[in-house]
Amino acid sequence: MTTEDQTLYEVSRKNSSGVDQGIVVIGIHTILGELLLEKLEKNPSVTSYHAVDLHAPGRAYSKKFKKLHFIKLDLIDPGADARLAKKLEEIGASLVVHTALKNNPSLNWVQAHELEVIGTLNIVSACKAAQVKKLVFCSTTAVYGASPKNPNYIDETHPLAAHPEAHFIRDKVEAEKQIAQVRKEAPEISLSVLRFALILGPKSKNYFTELFRRPIVPTLLGYDPLMQFVHEKDAGNALETAVMKNHPGIFNITGHGVIPLSYALREAGKFSLPVASFLAYPLVQVLWNLQLVSVPGKLLDYFRYLWVTDGEKAKREMNFVPTYSSKEAFLDFAKSQRLQEFQ
Amino acid sequence: MSAKKEIPNKEVFSAQRLLKQLSDELDSYFNNPESFDRKRLEKMAVEFIEELKLISSNIPSLNIPSLKNLSESASPGKIWEIIGKVRRVLQSDEVDEYGCDRQFEMAIKPFFDFLFQKYFRVSVQGIENIPSTGRALLVANHSGVLPYDAAMMKVAIYNEHAQKRELRFLVDDFVFHFPFMGVMMNRIGGIRACPENAERLLNQGELVSVFPEGIKGISKPFTERYKLQRFGRGGAIRLALNTQAPIVPVAIVGAEEIHPLLYKSSVLARPLGLPFIPITPTFPFLGPLGAIPLPTKWTMVFGKPIPFDQYSEKDRHNGILINRENEKLREQIQEMVFDVLKDRKSVFFG
């Protein structure tokens, strides 16, 4: 049970005296990965945990996370699955948390596809080979797709968007399918899938928060979808609950209530610039190709139609009660944005 | 803004004072809408505008008191503030979980009240058949090209029912494809029509209205008026079985004649994403004027609730039972419609 040469910033394990629960977090540079590391660091019952990522955590990180053992591994390398399986066995991992899905759409969609789909496939094979007891997968509610045909509150049984044109969503849906295979092929693994709504808070940075950087925010003329958010703190709590306790199944993690996009913009003190949708789609696609906006044109559906999900199941089974409503989460995010302007 | 220095301070001060008062008044409205004195607010607003005119007339280069001058004489920030506050009278900061903004709904309600009381002169019968609390599914006949019947039903229940109950109405999918229409429907409480939504609403103890005839109902030609179309595939009965909600049958008479449909074109409608384009005696020949409904006299009858809690779990998937109940319901509403029609002497005067 060593972490050998790849462990760049290892803190001596001699200090830690408790039992190693064998928690492995894959993907620590995503918001959820960060949130989980913080939670694990604070949790007294966890004495040490491992993290797998391509990029080593920075200096500040290694000081902050004293219980962290870092394993450098590229998930999309050929043979990454065998290597990961070996590592998991060495560590004696019993619980793997997969948070390595991209927060944001990427122009390099080939690489993103490799990471999300092939990376997930590798993780799944490694978990099966290493006989991990539990797998927690962090997904997003965007996999349901935005459509005028969605019910107001989408529950976990709703089919995932079958043919979304955006790579960002398609990869995530495919990753979900890989994970769903685990349930069939390896029922002995306890599998929790958490689908998070847009995560907002002082720290979060994603395609949605990018919108709010400028004082004038373009919107789609005549469309004002109901948006749903979950606050970072709540997202962290939900993830910690899923990791520390056993809640197999799929859960939507979201704050209660909704806020229309235009109301949110007003609360944040932004001016909206409505653009006719038939112009907006090609225009945004061009701007996306030039990397001037944070979403590709195909993703504009998410600012046009409904994709609000039902968080009742998480409340019922996981006892997850969000402390921030969608609106409060948004306000907290807007507040931190304003503060940043003065810093 | 360069002219600002030449403005006598006295007027500026008094304008500032008035603005402050105005904003306090509006604040008090948000804190306590019941004790809000509209006359006083109007008076203050007029005073403030007069003051602004005075200020602008003191600026030599700007003697015409127009809106442009007003905005130039007062600081732009303050003007934005006022615009923001006016908007806040129309919109609140929050919507309910389905996207309905009560403040917006109430702001446009006078228009629907006018339609209900003065224009269609709706006479309502059997309003006591709607339960005072708890879930109920209202099933009605659908007619009249544009769904005024759904709107009038909502107004009827809010205005006439002792409990002032809120009716949740379900809106067909295609509406949400369109700009503005979908948003507007959503803000006044319309929810996309699908079994999941209806079931969720009923389980929350809401009143939900459905029109099982759907588009077939509102698009039937004038010659077939008051002949109820097929009631879908029994979705309403399924809902009632699943949620154990009683069904209140509703007959609406008068809505058929607001837009007598002579012909409908589906071919032209398809590229627009509409279910059909109506040809009526007034539309499209009179252009937008043709979209004004004829002022017929309406009668709305709420029947006795039909209980659905005697069925067991197994019956929920009993297709034969669902079909039978569905047909029974259709016949009952058809009879209610005929009963009203029998006594009706005139389309426009009842």
Biggest β-sheet description of chain A: 7 strands, parallel
**Structural class from helices and strands of chain B?**
alpha/beta
- What is the mean pLDDT of chain A? 86
Round the mean pLDDT of chain B to the nearest integer and report it.
Answer: 85
Major sheet of chain B: 7 strands, mixed
Give the SSE string of chain A. EHEHEHEHEHEEHEEEHEEHEHHH
Helical/strand content category of chain A: alpha/beta
How far do the termini of chain A sit from each other? 45 Å
Widest β-sheet, arrangement of strands of chain A: 3-2-1-4-5-6-11
Elements of chain B, N to C (H/E): HHHHHEEHEHEHEHHEEEEH
* Number of domains as seen in the coordinates of chain B: 2
Alpha-carbon distance between the two ends of chain B: 63 Å
Greatest chain-chain contact: A-B, 24 and 24 residues
List how many beta strands of chain B DSSP finds: 9
> How much beta of chain A, percentage-wise?
15-25%
Q: Whole-number radius of gyration of chain B?
A: 26 Å
Radius of gyration of chain A: 20 Å
Oligomerization status of the protein chains: heterodimer
What does this structure look like?
The complex is a heterodimer of chains A (343) and B (350). With 343 residues, chain A is of the alpha/beta class. Chain A has eleven helices and 13 strands. In chain A, strand 5, helix 5 and strand 6 form a beta-alpha-beta unit. The longest helix of chain A has 21 residues, at 109-129. Chain A starts with 22 loop residues before the first strand and ends with a helix. Residues 1-19 of chain A have low confidence and may be disordered. Chain B is α/β, with parallel strands linked by helices. Chain B folds into two domains: 2-90, no CATH class; 102-258 and 293-343, Glycerol-3-phosphate (1)-acyltransferase, CATH 3.40.1130.10. Chain B has helices at 9-31, 38-58, 67-73, 76-90, 102-119, 148-160, 181-187, 195-203, 215-218, 235-243, 319-343, and strands at 123-125, 136-140, 167-171, 190-192, 207-210, 247-253, 263-265, 277-279, 299-302. In chain B, the strands form two sheets. In chain B, strands 1-9-6-2-5-3-4 form a seven-stranded mixed β-sheet, sandwiched between helices. In chain B, strands 7-8 form a two-stranded antiparallel sheet. In chain B, helix 7 (181-187) links the parallel strand 3 (167-171) and strand 4. In chain B, helix 8 runs parallel beside helix 10. Chain B is elongated and about 85 Å long.
